[in-house]
Design goal:
Layout (H helix, E strand, L loop, with lengths): L16 H4 L19 H5 L2 H54 L1 H4 L10 H21 L6 E6 L4 E6 L2 E2 L15 H5 L7 E7 L6 E10 L5 E10 L7 H5 L4 E6 L5 E4 L6 H5 L4 H8 L4 E6 L2 E9 L7 E7 L2 H8 L3 H40 L3 E5 L4 E5 L1 H7 L19 E2 H4 L2 H13 L5 E10 L2 E11 L9 E7 L1 H15 L9 H18 L2 E10 L1 H8 L1 H19 L4 E6 L2 E9 L2 H16 L2 E3 L2 E3 L2 E8 L7 H17 L4 E3 L6 H19 L2 E10 L5 E12 L3 E3 L1 H10 L3 H21 L5 E5 L2 H5 L3 H12 L6 E6 H5 L2 H13 L3 E7 L6 H6 L4 E4 L1 H5 L5 H16 L3 E4 L5 H10 L3 E2 L10 H18 L1
Helix pairs in contact: 3-11, 3-15, 17-18, 18-19, 20-21, 21-22, 23-25
The structure holds ligand C2E and calcium ion (2 copies).
């Protein structure tokens, strides 16, 4: 079996392996060249007449045999070409399937390219993910890599070995596939012309697909290489080799692969002979001709606009089998005549019969082994010739078809149209009706046998005028596995992996469809968005596996209420949606919402523990609340958010939620996705020593690079995160990014302490200290370089709990800072008992110190107080040189504010620090 036929299938349904096995054999039918026996009477009429008769006999015989050979070669070439096309398609599917994998989606940066710390994390992940591809297709893929939009490799696997980061190349932008791939829309695969792989040093063809981020921009491309050698006909075909094949590049005329020679660089570069080049340059899907004294047939492989490979498969008969055809001429006919006169008719007849039998045996073997169905039929689909594969498929086991195992049958004994599944009959009849000489008609049908349903791609060639065939030659190639892979790919992209429910994309499609129906019916479409309450607690208490098991039960429970009407989808996390078609009013939707909530109220038994589930439901209905899927989903999200925050079980979207807050609320849904897609980023603001002028550290301040709104500041989304249970995730996200940055600075030889802001919810999360410790360990950052800023208010929501958490964090060696001090009501006594290291004086006092004497006084007393407790004093909001001077005079330790620097991206900060160091050393 050819190597490339060994690619695993997505699924195998029951058809016999013999039928399925893709063999590199000709699909040519074993048509019997009809013997032309000169009449005895003619022979006896005299030497002259006999001579004339023999000349005509032999030349007609030669023409018929040549036509017969041509159609055999053409059929074999077409079969090889269809295998290659299928292989290209298969490689495309693998590429797309892989690109769909969430592991790659998770890596996508929000905007631009991955920078320092992100790069390191992603490289590690990408390497693993590429190795995963190797596991899926063992031995098939010689090299796979993920390349970002600048041409830098993020991860690479060569023959199963994950390349270390140090080996990753940055110069992939020059490769022949890079630019064409990035120019393609998502979901397309570019297949470049063969080249020598820099990793495996063998000739390869490559497949690459663009990966886009949440805002639709390509951020990387996923690439893999397959050895060109894989196209070589396999050992089985080689042993029974009756033909030799070449793959020739149509444009250059170069021979890419020669079944008779090993694939080495020189053979690939070999230019074909002028005759060969002229033949492949001819337009058209197929051609026949004579090249280098051999009869050849050509079939083209053009795999569409994304494929740079315009190839021809050239099939030739080995010359010894062909010799007498090509050398035949009048002189040899004359010699044959003389010989025949001597040998007489009996000998002539014996000789021709033997030749026929040999020829036939050869093609019979090819046909017997072909998995393609080959039939000769009339326009009504009644066959008079069938390949054994047809019988294997159609005959009940052990019984044999009506043919009794014969390939030639009486016309009418087998009716192909009746044998295919009903849906395909009209199409097949049409293909048969329209088949015309010189034109290939194509179609598709399915056949259900005892082994299951197989789908075939069928092509029909009209050879009615060919005396050796006299009918329509129908070849059908089994594409069941290819379709199954395609379907699985589609299924995966439209369904949630955990629950198998439709995902957001499919829901959006379903809504649009339902809207169309509703418009015709004069009904409405309802959309309910359900978010489980306190699901996180379930996860935290019982673990994620338990949480997953619970989530899997939600869909069936909801579907039970719907009783077959409507769709349940999972949008992610603990968020589900229900689509309700054919509604007459919003009340029907709220009724269903109520019923769903009652159903959820029945405890869920998970691994022997009963859990109660509550949910908040947002309700919208088409017509009243929107007319397209996007608006309805957005408004359902807002309604759900209101239900949640107002502790209402069900909330129907209300346009009176004013535009401003509605748009704010719409951010909630976006924020959830932003956390997944990496749209959040950190800016850093320096903290500078008022005594030495040194940069002591930075505060990490989160920003949201929103695809539509641009850069969004934390004041807009931190409160939303607090209210929607996203705060813990946000903090972890920020901590992770900040520590990765700290690591980068350590590696660069200038460690800098980083301050991260916490929320009250972090202090209340049981495992928070462990999470921080894990992250420090993961990034190998010493604890003293991390500072955590906590506001008075955060501590005041539950002081004993907050204190306990701060103790644990402090014990890890992390510095703790009391943020926005002075704005709240922390009493001095509380201050003394907290394990804090630093106080940040709220910027409302600092900013106006110069103008407002009372504020100046407060700052002075805070500095004194702090110092008496042994704490470091930081002044926030330093906007002028004047304030800076006063603070220094008061003995304040550290300043932070616009006068020094705003919070800026890491690259800008690095420059800022370098400039500052430069000017400081210059003034010294
Ligand atoms: P904050 O912790 O008090 O952070 C200082 C804020 O003051 C920052 O605003 C900073 O840009 C701003 N600022 C700095 N210097 C000056 C100045 O001289 N004048 C004025 N007028 N403002 C100055 P930003 O980045 O908008 O952050 C706002 C708040 O959002 C932060 O206040 C913090 O409470 C919260 N926040 C930011 N990032 C995070 C985070 O990662 N996690 C949490 N939980 N909260 C964060
Ligand atoms: Ca802060
Ligand atoms: Ca502050």
């Amino acid at each position: 079996m050819a190597k490339y036929a060994a690619m695993p299938r997505a699924s195998t349904n029951g058809s016999g392996a013999d039928v399925r096995g893709r063999r590199r054999v000709a699909r040519r039918l074993g048509a019997k060249p009809r013997g032309r026996v000169p009449g005895l009477v003619t022979g006896l009429l005299g030497v002259l007449l006999l001579g004339a008769s023999l000349i005509s006999t032999v030349t007609t015989g030669r023409d018929a045999a040549l036509a017969d050979l041509d159609s055999k070669l053409s059929a074999h070439a077409a079969s090889r070409a269809s295998d290659l096309t299928e292989y290209f398609e298969r490689a495309q599917s693998i590429n797309l399937l892989l690109a769909h994998d969430s592991v790659f989606k998770l890596m996508a940066p929000g905007e631009g390219v991955l920078s320092g710390p992100q790069f390191a994390t992603v490289s590690a992940q990408a390497g693993k993910a590429m190795a995963y591809l190797e596991q899926l297709y063992p031995g098939q893929i010689s090299e796979a890599c993920l390349i970002d939009s600048t041409g830098a490799e993020l991860g690479r696997v060569v023959r199963g070995r994950v390349a270390p980061v140090s080996e990753l190349s940055k110069g992939e932008a020059d490769t022949p596939f890079f630019a064409p791939t990035l120019g393609l829309p998502q979901g397309h695969v570019y297949q470049a012309a063969p080249y020598v792989s820099s990793d495996t040093h063998e000739w390869v063809i490559s497949n690459s697909t663009p990966m886009v981020n949440a805002s639709g921009r390509p951020w990387a491309l996923l690439h893999f290489e397959l050895p060109l050698d894989g196209f070589r006909p396999g050992a089985e075909a080689a042993s029974a080799r009756s033909f030799s094949d070449l793959i020739v590049d149509n444009r250059s005329g170069q021979v890419l692969l020669d079944s008779a020679r090993p694939l080495v660089e020189s053979s690939l570069g070999r230019a074909g002979s002028p005759e060969l080049r002229a033949l492949v340059a001819r337009p058209g899907a197929s051609a026949s001709g004579t090249v280098d004294g051999q009869r050849v047939a050509v079939a083209r492989v053009t795999a569409g606009p994304d494929n740079a490979n315009s190839w021809s498969v050239v099939v030739a008969m080995p010359s010894e089998a062909l010799g007498w055809f090509s050398s035949i001429g009048f002189s040899s006919v004359a010699m044959a005549l003389a010989a025949l006169l001597l040998l007489a008719f009996a000998g002539y007849l014996r000789a021709t019969h033997r030749a026929e039998r040999q020829g036939e045996a050869r093609y019979r073997t090819l046909i017997d082994q072909s998995s393609d169905l080959v039939l000769v039929v009339d326009r009504a689909g009644r066959a008079d010739f069938l390949s054994p594969s047809v019988e294997r498929l159609l005959a009940p086991p052990g019984k044999g078809l009506a043919t009794g195992g014969k390939q030639r049958v009486n016309r009418g004994a087998v009716d192909l149209v009746a044998a295919v599944d009903p849906e395909g009959r009209a199409g097949l009849s049409a293909v048969l009706r329209t088949a015309a000489p010189g034109r290939m008609s194509a179609g598709e049908f399915s056949i259900t046998s005892t082994e299951g349903t197989s789908t075939f791609e069928v092509s029909v060639q009209d050879l009615s005028s060919d005396p050796s065939v006299r009918g329509l030659v129908l070849t059908a190639h089994d594409v069941t596995d290819r379709l199954a892979l395609k379907n699985e790919m589609e299924h995966r992209s439209l369904h949630d992996a955990l629950t198998g429910l439709p995902n957001r994309a499919m829901l959006a499609d379903d809504i649009e469809q339902a809207l169309g129906v509703a418009e015709r019916d004069g009904t409405s479409v309802g959309l309910l968005l359900l978010d489980l309450d306190r699901f996180k607690e379930v996860n935290d208490t019982f673990g994620h596996d338990y949480g997953d098991a619970l989530l899997r039960q939600i869909g069936p429970r909801l579907a039970g209420v719907l009783g077959g009407v409507g769709t349940v989808a999972r949008l992610g996390g603990d968020e589900f949606a229900v689509l309700l078609p054919g509604l007459r009013g919003v009340n029907q939707a709220t009724d269903v919402a109520g019923a769903l909530l009652s159903a959820l109220a029945i405890p869920f038994p998970v691994e022997g523990i009963d859990v109660d589930v509550e949910a908040s439901v947002g309700v919208v209905i088409s017509g009243e609340h929107g007319q397209d899927a996007t608006t309805l989903m957005q408004r359902a999200d807002i309604a759900m958010y209101v239900a949640k925050t107002q502790h209402l079980a069900v909330f129907v979207y209300d346009a009176s939620i004013d535009g401003h807050s509605a748009s704010k609320l719409a951010l909630v849904g976006d924020l959830r996705r932003a956390l997944d897609s990496g749209e959040l980023l950190l800016h850093y603001q320096p903290k500078v020593s008022l005594t030495s002028g040194e940069v002591l550290g930075v505060e990490a301040l989160v920003r949201w690079q929103h695809p539509e709104r641009g850069l969004v500041f934390p004041d807009e989304f931190i409160p939303l995160a607090e209210n929607t249970g996203l705060m813990n995730r946000l903090t972890k996200y920020v901590l992770n990014a900040a520590l990765a940055q700290a690591r980068t600075w350590i590696d660069a030889g200038r460690p800098l302490s980083i301050a991260v802001n916490l929320s009250a919810r972090d202090l209340h999360e049981e495992r928070f200290a462990e999470v921080v410790a894990e992250l420090l360990a993961r990034h190998e950052v010493p604890a003293h370089l991390l500072e955590l800023e906590v506001t008075e208010t955060a501590i005041m929501t539950d002081p004993p709990r907050a204190r306990a958490m701060l103790e644990r964090l402090s014990a890890l060696g992390i510095r703790l800072s009391l943020d926005d001090f002075g704005a709240g009501y922390t009493s001095l006594s509380q201050l003394t008992s907290l394990p804090i290291d630093e106080i940040k004086i709220d910027r409302s006092f600092v900013m106006t110190m110069a103008e407002d004497p009372s504020n100046a006084l407060i700052v002075r007393s805070l500095v004194d107080l702090g110092h008496s407790l042994g704490l470091t004093l930081v002044a926030e909001g330093v906007e002028t040189e004047g304030v800076l001077q006063v603070l220094a005079a008061l003995g304040c330790d550290v300043a932070q504010g616009y006068h020094l620097s705003r919070a800026i991206p890491v690259a800008a900060l690095d420059t800022w620090c370098a400039d500052r160091l430069g000017s400081m050393t210059a003034t010294r």
